[in-house]
Backbone:
């Protein structure tokens, strides 16, 4: 179930709904990063909304959000981020993207649409753009743009603007070191963190808007100014057609509903998951154990630098060379593959094991998500 995000075949758009599409006005939609609950997504939207009035350039302005949901108590987010990073230059079509498109079809009521994405939400913003720009039932590219904040991506679809601080330890300290086969967009601002700030320097509202609010607003306004109306979208139909939901998508939704409920009742730090999830992670990465170990090494060194500690409690070490037996309670047998561990940051990662870690500091509603 941890790889449901990679299974969903994308559905075509369905012309449904009663909403109309106005050529007069603008819509800004925020997309959060990983480990952000609905309240956190709303908080991000409200933080940005604070900087704008109800009108822009004499036209109505709506600011709303699309919730990039967290799955499997955050583990699904980590695996999904790895997958999206590996295939950053391609459109990643998954369950959550379809859900965002469905929600967007219900919320967007103007031709001119700007996506403001934070962190991992930028992968979704790029895929959103790829799927709807100049597509039947979508949005003409002249009316659609992206503004990226703290982006782990190598691109902004549609050649949009971005802002990333060189003191953002999640992006420049972790993601930039992993990179896989790509190079991410370079940092272009410096945020001097103060006492009491999150040491990750990554939050949407508590870091980026707090210290670079004027620059972000200027970039957003510049992006809005470039949007144009079109004669393609029908004023009597939704601006964005709702995607047809496939049977597979509906099954995924039901499975997530159960799996997320169960996972949320499990300790955040120490997951006791079947070895199948570990193998799924390796399958998704598809870059060999050496690359996954490199990811683990970068994560543990970043943790060491951020928190100034030499040892951290990680979720699990999964030994890929053995088979795991499940007992009747569904727990993995600790005698073979699963052992709770402490990871000494002064030692190198073992090449015989893969570490899957829950990077809690990358997200959370207080910092605007990862």
Residues:
């Amino acid at each position: 179930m941890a790889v449901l995000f990679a299974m969903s075949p994308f559905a075509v758009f369905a012309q449904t709904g009663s909403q109309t599409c106005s050529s007069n006005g603008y819509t800004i939609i925020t997309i959060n990063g990983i480990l952000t609950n609905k309240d956190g997504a709303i908080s991000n939207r409200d933080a940005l909304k604070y900087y704008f009035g109800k009108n822009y350039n004499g036209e109505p302005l709506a600011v709303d959000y699309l919730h990039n949901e967290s799955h499997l108590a955050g583990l699904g987010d980590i695996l999904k981020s790895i997958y999206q990073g590996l295939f950053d230059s391609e459109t990643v079509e998954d369950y959550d993207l379809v859900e965002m498109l469905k929600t967007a079809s219900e919320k967007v009521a103007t031709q001119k649409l700007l996506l403001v994405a934070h962190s991992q939400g930028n992968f979704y913003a790029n895929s959103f753009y790829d799927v709807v720009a100049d597509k039947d039932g979508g949005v003409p590219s002249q009316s659609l743009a992206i503004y990226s904040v703290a982006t782990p991506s190598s691109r902004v679809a549609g050649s949009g603007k971005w802002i990333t601080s060189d003191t953002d330890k999640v992006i420049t300290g972790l993601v930039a070191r992993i990179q896989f086969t790509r190079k991410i967009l370079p940092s272009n601002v410096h945020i001097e963190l103060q006492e009491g700030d999150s040491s990750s320097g990554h939050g949407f509202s508590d870091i980026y808007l707090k210290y670079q609010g004027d620059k972000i607003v200027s970039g957003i306004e510049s992006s809005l100014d470039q949007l144009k109306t079109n004669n393609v979208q029908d004023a009597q139909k939704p601006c964005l057609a709702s995607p047809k939901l496939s049977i597979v998508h509906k099954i995924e939704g039901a499975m997530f509903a159960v799996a997320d409920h169960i996972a949320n009742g499990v300790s955040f730090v120490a997951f006791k998951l079947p070895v199948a999830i570990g193998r799924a992670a390796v399958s998704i990465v598809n870059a060999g154990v050496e690359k996954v170990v490199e990811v683990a090494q970068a994560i543990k060194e970043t943790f060491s630098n951020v928190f100034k500690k030499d040892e951290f409690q990680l979720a699990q070490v999964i030994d890929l060379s053995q088979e795991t037996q499940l007992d009747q309670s569904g727990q993995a047998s600790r005698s073979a593959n699963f052992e709770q561990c402490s990871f000494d940051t002064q030692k190198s990662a073992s090449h015989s094991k893969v570490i899957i870690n829950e990077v809690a500091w990358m997200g959370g509603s207080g910092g605007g998500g990862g």
